[in-house]
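Students often ask why we bother predicting the structure of a whole assembly rather than each chain alone. The short answer is interfaces. A chain on its own may look different once its partners are present, and contacts between molecules only exist in the joint model. In this exercise we take two input lines together and write out one structure for the complete complex. Read the inputs first and try to guess which parts will touch.
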Amino acid sequence: MTEGFTLWFTGLSGAGKTTIAEIVRAELERRGRRVEWLDGDEVREHLSKGLGFSKEDRDTNIDRIGWVASKLTRHGAAVIVSAISPYAEARNNARAMGEEHGTFVGVFVDGSVEECARRDVKALYEKAFRGEIKEFTGVSDPYEAPASPEVCIESEHEEPEASAQRIVELLEARGLVPAAVTA
Amino acid sequence: MTEGFTLWFTGLSGAGKTTIAEIVRAELERRGRRVEWLDGDEVREHLSKGLGFSKEDRDTNIDRIGWVASKLTRHGAAVIVSAISPYAEARNNARAMGEEHGTFVGVFVDGSVEECARRDVKALYEKAFRGEIKEFTGVSDPYEAPASPEVCIESEHEEPEASAQRIVELLEARGLVPAAVTA
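Now the answer. The structure tokens for the assembled complex follow.
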């Protein structure tokens, strides 16, 4: 069986997690890996319906995603998680669960609040600044940057394609995806 | 990749789901399948923490287990679910999710309330009869028996080993586990 792994994207809303993850996903599938993408927003519709955005609920949400990701990793899946996951301890717990069954690769998509707010892809920052959304990470709720992620991406200074390529190269170097076939 | 499947045990508390599932699990692993066992009680500690036993919460619990089982099935796992799962509609939804990615085999462990109460493995029926546990399936909460499960087990009239053997034979006939190696 192929070795499973979890590729975990953390970062503020609008930092570029989904955009980069989508490019990585397509490349992994092109190279024959079966991918399971657990996206924070999608997961909240299924796995974590009813949870809010308090620290306790955020931790439960991340624990649940980490639990599912680790089980999928055990069965050889290439798991991509994209979730704000603002608390270091919850991320570390998810990492520990994942490493029981395979490899865990943390990706920090580092975008400043100013830049994320400037893009404001989902028109959420504007509401957060006005106080219409409470507990908004980076505005009215904390974000604990990871101390030593495997990949650090400054999304203001690198194109998503280049970031994705760096990630895939790391996975390739670790033997988790086969090398690209060149014509 | 090996074809994934979900083997779903439904039935009253104490009917024998866990006992039979444990024998099936050991046999599947002996034959080289990697098994993921989602047990109702364990899942309530992780995936479904905070949910109660109202119809709505039970349906959410089963939806969540079904969602995770279907994702694992997609990645070739042999998934065993053992959960009371009293409502037909929720079980049917779980089946539909599972069949999107592999095979779904329903097992009805049919034990009467009288017999389950007589065994009362977890000393729950006694409390339920006294009204100390509310919403107890079979006593104060409904159980909708499946209309056409792939396997029906009358656990009062069959030893767990024989029931487990029938299940494994069915899986074998469907090409989901390799035949036993005989010396």
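Check your guess against this: The longest helix of chain A spans residues 55-74.
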